[in-house]
Specification:
Blueprint: E1 2-6, H1 10-22, E2 26-30, H2 33-42, E3 47-51, H3 59-68, E4 75-79, H4 84-93, E5 97-100, H5 105-119, E6 126-129, E7 132-135, E8 140-143, E9 146-148, H6 152-163, E10 168-169, H7 171-178, H8 187-201, E11 206-209, E12 213-216
Parallel strand pairs: 1-2, 1-3, 3-4, 4-5
Antiparallel strand pairs: 6-7, 7-8, 8-9, 10-12, 11-12
Helix pairs in contact: 2-3, 6-8, 7-8
Amino acid sequence: MRLLVVEDDADLNRQLVEALVEAGYAVDTASDGEEGHFLGDTEPYDAVVLDLGLPKLDGLSVLENWRRDGRVMPVLVLTARDRWSDKVAGIDAGADDYVSKPFHMEEILARVRALVRRAAGHASNELTCGPLRLDLRTSRVTRDGTAIKLTSHEYRLLTYLMHHQGKVISRTELTEHLYEQDFDRDSNTVEVFVGRLRKKIGADLIETIRGLGYRLGDAREG
């Protein structure tokens, strides 16, 4: 899953990115509204963490522009303002949730999980596919109760497929949602990670749809 963090405070930006990467996300970052708007307008993100008090272009304007242009990714707004009118303005501009500064990083992680989960139509933090279980809170993956150890890229791949199970996901879509903007995006790398993931979770759960991509599902349920 791929996120965008738009925050002009360098220390907070770094802390957010570190926490989100540690939680298993691919993260792009911007330090002003113009750069943030451009990235959100041109790259496919699963969610955005957006500060309102940004230089060059304020966060509310960024959000309003995205929504006007049809960008529907979930947006979590960060604000140092505690007036209820500012929170209402953020929601009215198209925010899906908001957090006031200062905040605990665990709250950000929980709210991001919820936004990504709901956007994919899931109500629970535990995603299942046949014998496979993925706990989004702990990043723990099990099959038939046995824990499976995954690398960061394997975990990102599985998380994206689990959020969209039953759907055919192209290699291009996987590439766009697994890697940061400046990562060397080679679609052949996706095939390598799919192969490795199959060996760990079972080849029966990931189906190759020739010419289209991959689909995660329990063949026994079909």
